[in-house]
Amino acid sequence: MEGLRLCLLCLTTGSGVPVYSRHRGAARQLPFSVIGSLNGVHMFGHSQDVLLSATCTENVKVLWKSFHDSISLIVISSEEDASDHYLHRLMDNVFHAMVMVIGLDELVNIKNVERLKKDLRACYPLIDSLLLASERIGDLVQCVDCVMAHDIPVLQECLDAFIRAADSDFGCLVARGRIVVATEKWWRLAAQEVMLLTWLVASLAPRSSRDYPVYLPHGSPTVPHRLLTFQLVPGVDVCVLCGPSPSLHKVETELVEVFWKPLLEPVKACLRVQLRSFPASIPLHQGILGLLLIKQDQNRLLFTVQAQPGEKPPKDGVGLSLPERRSVLRAFYTLAVTHYFPPERLDERTLPLLEEFQAGYSHSASECYIASSSHKCYALQAEQRQLFLLFQPTVPTFSLRSIATRTLQTFTKDAPF
Amino acid sequence: MAEERHRGPGPGQAPADSGDEEGSEQESPASYTDSSSFSSNDLEPEWLDSVQKNGELFYLELSEGEEEALLPANSPEVPSVNHVRFRENEAEVIPTGQWKEGKKVEPTLKKLSRILKKPQKHVSRKGPTSILKQPPTLKTGGAVQQRYKDVCIYVNPNRLSSSEVGEPASLLHTLVGIIHQSSWSSGRPGRRQGGQNGNLKYTNEEKLVVHGLVPGSSAIKSSQIMIGDALIAVNDVDVSSENIERVLSCIPGPMQVKLTFETPVVEAEISMEAKEKQVQSNMNNLTKLLWGENNSNVQLAFQEIPHIAMYLSLKLDSDTSKEEQEILYQYSMSEASKKLKSVRGIFLTLCDMLHNVTGGHVISSSLIVSGKLVHVAYWKESDKLLLIGLPAEQIPLFQLKNMISDVARTLKVMYGSLDSAFCQVENVPRQDYFFNLFFQRALQPARLNPTASPSTQHYDACSSLLLDNLPGVRWLTVPEDIKMEVDTALSDLEAVDFAALSEDYYDMRRLYMILGSCFFYKGYLISSHLPKNDLVDISLYCRHYCLLPLAAEQRIGQLVIWREVFLQCHRQASGAEGYQEPEARYFLLIVGLKHFMLPVLLEAGGCTSKIIGNPGPDCIYVDQVKATLLQLEGLDVTIEERLGALPSPCLSCADWFLPSSRDKLESFTNVPYIKLQTSAKTATFPTSKRALLMDTSSSLRTRRPSPSRNSGGFDNGSEGPGEGAGVSPHSTPDLGRKYGRRESQGSGSSEGSGGGGTLFKITKKRHTLPNPFNLGSLKKNLSEKDTEELYNVIKITSGPENTLFHYLSLETVQGIYICPTHKEVAQLSGSIHPQLIKNFHRCCLSIRSVFQQTVFDKKKNNLDADTSSELRETGSGLGPVKEHGVLFECCPENWTDQKKSPPKMTYWVVGRLFLQPQPQEFYVCFHDSVTEVAVELAFKLSYGLAV
User: Fold this and answer.
1) Chain A nearest CA to B380, separation (Å)
2) Rounded Cα distance, B232 and B208, in Å
């Protein structure tokens, strides 16, 4: 187990045949006997009408989840900051990523395990990108990471026209895994679908254009759609979700050039705001290190851990490193969401797999903070928006609230997100 | 003090199992002679015949005041099946009863005081006996017959004699309320299946079939006795139509009797596993005893809740093919729990496998049983595994982890190891009792104390989850002089200097040395002379047996608990600096009287004589502790005064901060405050402070005009000095006088924080400042000036109003915590406030779990520091959190005004952790109108409480 940070096992539920296993960190295959007994206890519980969902030891967490009585996922994590909340989300995402790539039918009616194994290889890039500690947070929040570019109206207008011309309603502009603009219909897809589509585009090897069949895990899990992507500049793709027509060739030759050539500069500018996720012109308090802003009604979020525009990457030993900042914000988000803030949407899940601690409160929480010796965090929830801020430890605790309120105001009024 | 008492032996009084029966049989002649020699001596303590074979004693007498209404309803300590009132053989019934009757006439206290008045005589007669011999170990009533329906009912022969004198009706009819007509009874043969007790002499006497129930009688109230049932035993004494009147006439006074019935329905259940049946019937009685509720409802309520406690062996003998051989002990009774039991293989496999693979112990599992998420916590010890499963809805996982470690610790204190706690057969019923209480505390905390006032009940219910698992005892600060008096009394006791125990007197070593003692009043710790770990051990024991809430109500007539304990810190070999703990044995003696409880920790075998076998409580020590209690008895007035005094620090009620409830509350709260004012005069607060305090509370009540306050801004500068006038219509004359004086001082509401004229300016300044956060520095200046005053007094929040709603301060080093008393909370009734208190405690649970992680990480880092630091660079989650706060908002319920949106009240729950210089945790709940610096609050709290 040494060196193993996270291991994901996929087995067939009925026979317990291992389908694949993916790792984060130094990979060493778990002995088959261990995999067998891990699956065995879960199956035994199932036969007794008891659903084993999680077990933790002093240093490791193991979670089980089976989907449609056909595919079982087991995740083993030795990372201290991996919460149950995150691991459940991860398994959910992984399964739906599998659905997205090969469709639900193949996963539910497994006729040939060997063939399934082969088919599922296509999912590996996407699953691996979910397993990798990423710079994005959409996998945890179940919203899409976005970027606030400079010329949003221009890009939006162009995108809308382009998508209309391509005979579709669904399209978006993605810059390094974050959405810059998208059509209105795109936002109406399920949050997980939007998130997975974006991650899928980011996980695939860069191509100038691509025609990729996708199943929408919630919208159409059995009938594939076509996802067309076109690279405008390296790192920025425009995506179209459509039916059998139009052909890739037609769109590529007739539409892309026409619509996007004039906007090359604004498109390139999208990449420049990448680190901060929003333009440097938006003022932020000096003490803010990181920011996570979630717009719940639209399933969008802004996430950065380099909130100060001119900031040099932190030196070793001084303050929090960037991965540490991400880790703190993720942990703080999880704490606030699992312990305090009322759940934003009713999950379609029927089984209460996770402890609903907030259900016990008689009053609802709207803000919370933590202060530690290396950092401070503040969370704020108001009208479909959640704001999580990471501060320098030097910012006085009593001023966190006013800074947070002001920051939220900035993003609702001055520069609406 | 009432004349008659009800008494009952406690949970420790497990029925002796058949294996030990023989041994005790041999002993019994000696014991009986002892006991008979004592019975001639009217100084024999009442609890003596409750002492068990292994020396343990759990003896509880309730005072008459608690009588019938309470008795069937609650008091977990009056246990269930184990009532041993008479000897099991019929022959002994009458003498025992008569003996008891004669003895019981004397009020206990009078007798006690007599003992104290003539100690010399007492010693000369009794002393040698108790030092030379071990007190007699009496045989407890034989194995309890579990196969039939046991019904515990309350009977009161006194009442009978007063009301129905001369009526020739049978006692069965009048006392119990069962109508039996002998002519009706069919000549059914007495088919007694449980004959293994050697009681088969029961043959052809007529059976006592219930033909009817007397309306209003105890029998009908119990709602468990059915027509057609046959009464076969009273308190385990076989009865028939022959002897029933004789048996019943032996009931000396008001008491609980156990009636055993044979029911036609039972036949089906008999086929069930004996063990299960036992648990079930145990439950029947207990639920009834504890909750006074139709037990089928409770059964039903529990039926749906999956909960289990199991002790499993990881070593499996493959030879024996016995079913369930790995289960060494289990406690569960609901259908849902059976499922948990059936998947025990999962726990065993995981425990074994994950330990091998990961090298760490398994801590917990989460499962879904019957659509509910259930957490199961593991506690592994050598090759055994203790499991406790509870639904997540009731018990969050991090709390369950604390609970299982508390359970393991308590059991280890009581039995030395988990093995001896679970694997010895005679301990099984004790564990049943233990876990019964445990699950009831966990699942339905409010029900354990149904007689308490609603607010107390609510406070207990919502705080128990948090407070029951704090490593400390609830502490009550008392004025110096009282503390002094208590400490002196305890020190005197601990000196073991009393004549009877002086070593010169008998020229032999004394039996025990007193290591320390502590003193509880109504469940509050007043003084402790125990090391922290011992104190926590003892408090855990008291908590698990619900002793502390018991004393909160006037219930204890007399409580004597004696048992050997295996204390944590004495168990560990402390090899440091050549000091060795003596190879001693430790005994815990708890004596309770009225609201007082005095646990004493005794050591035997260190510098005192060695103990052989399992001694029972020594009369002299018990008497001496009692004497100390009696000596301190006079304090109850003073301590009660302290409890009733003004809350310190001063608390506000959440409802006062909502405009809607203003009028109602003003009229409501004025009265108690004035009353408090007068009672506070006797307390130790300086007079000047009191006036100030009065103003604080009154200004607080009156300044409620703007619904816009929830904006967080401080916009009530306009309410200036003139506001007192607006209030007078509401206030009583007394209050008016206060206001008059205040106005003459001319600084309006500003006195609230003691600032006098300076604050007036501040009020103005505040008006110009739009943002409350900018007040930070301003406030600091203010509080620096007033530090001294604020520390002494009572209000610890800043700003003119008292915004503190609730607090909790935990001093890990001393093993105590401080929070508002029940009375203080009861004074702050309202509709929102109880919700707030519930919220506060739940939130503290979560905050505390974050802090625990910090402490845990720190420990681990300290360990890792010398080995490797690589692991740390991944950054573990939140990092070392030292302060954590959550803001809640609430609206008044039933907001009827359609036009306006309901006013919002927002408040903070903030926790603060100090690791230096000593670990401390503070939790406060305050209104959002003033920005508080949590550190400041915490310090004020800790100094203000004068720990």
Assistant:
1) 12
2) 7
The contacts of residue B16 (CB under 8 Å, 6+ apart) are B24, B53, B139, B140, B142, B143, B426
Could you tell me where the DSSP H helices lie in B769-871? Answer: 775-792, 822-827, 832-867
Q: How far is A1 from chain B (nearest CA, A)?
A: 6
Chain B interface, best mutation among A46, A55, A376, by max B CB count within 10 A:
A55
| Domain boundaries, position B574 | 1-73+89-144+472-644
Q: Please compute the mean of the pLDDT values over residues B18-30 and round it to a whole number.
A: 37
Give tens-digit pLDDT for B333-356: 677 788 888 888 889 888 888 888
**Same domain, yes or no: B553 and B663:** no
Q: Is the pTM of this model over 0.90?
A: no
Asked if residue B247 belongs to a domain, the reply is no
> Which of A1, A79, A362 is nearest residue B835 as measured by Cβ atoms?
A362
CATH 3.30.450.30 fits A150-272, yes or no: yes
Residues B766, B663 share a domain:
yes
Nearest to B848, CA basis, from B265, B348, B218, B401: B401
- Sheet arrangement for strand B5-9: B5-9, B57-63, B556-565, B585-594, B596-604, B513-521, B524-528
Three-class secondary structure of residue B343 per DSSP: coil
- B510 and B634, same domain (yes or no): yes
- What is the ipTM score, two decimals? 0.90
- Comparing CB atoms, the residue among A80, A332, A352 nearest residue B373 is A352
Distance from CA of A12 to the nearest CA of B (A): 20
Q: How far is CA B752 from CA B690, B697, B766, B796, B798, in A?
A: 11, 8, 16, 11, 9
Q: Which residue of B has its CA nearest to A51?
A: B368
Within this chain, do residues B650 and B637 fall inside the same structural domain, yes or no? no
Q: Are residues B621 and B751 in the same domain?
A: no
Provide the CATH number for the domain formed by A288-414 in this structure: 3.30.450
Same domain, B913 and B772: yes
Chain A contacts of B405, Cβ < 8 Å?
A: none
**Which residues of chain B have a CB within 8 Å of the CB of A331?**
877-878
Q: Does the residue B586 lie in any domain?
A: yes
pLDDT tens-digit readout, B224-263: 777 777 787 877 777 777 777 777 777 766 677 777 777 6
CB B408 within 8 A of CB B418: yes
Given B609, B644, B679, which residue is the final one in a domain? B644
Residue ranges of A 119-148 with Cβ closer than 8 A to chain B: none
Give me the residue from B353, B361, B880 closest to A372, CB to CB: B880
CB contact under 8 A, A57 and B371: no
- B680 and B624 in one domain? no
Interface with A, mutate which of B348, B352, B887, B890 (most A CBs under 10 A)? B887
- Mind spelling out the 3-state secondary structure of B789-807? HHHHCCCCCCCCCCCEEEE
- Inspect the interface and report whether the beta carbons of B842 and A62 lie closer than 8 Å: no
Domain A4-133 has CATH 2.60.40.10: no
Cβ within 8 Å, pair A397-B933:
yes
Residue B902 lies in a domain: yes
Q: What is the pLDDT of residue B122?
A: 33
Instruction: Look up residue A119 and give its two tokens.
Output: 């088919």
Listed by number, the residues of chain A in 178-237 with a beta carbon closer than 8 Å to a beta carbon of chain B are none
Report yes or no on B721 lying in a domain. yes
pLDDT in tens, A214-248: 999 998 899 999 999 999 998 899 999 998 888 88
Chain A closest CA to B432's CA: distance in Å? 25
Count of domains in chain B?
3
Q: Are B639 and B675 found together in one domain? A: no
Task: Give the distance from residue B340's alpha carbon to the nearest chain A alpha carbon, in angstroms.
Answer: 8
Residues ≥6 apart with Cβ < 8 Å to A243:
A168, A225, A226
Of A45, A370, A377, the CB nearest to B343: A45
Domain boundary among B607, B624, B644: B644
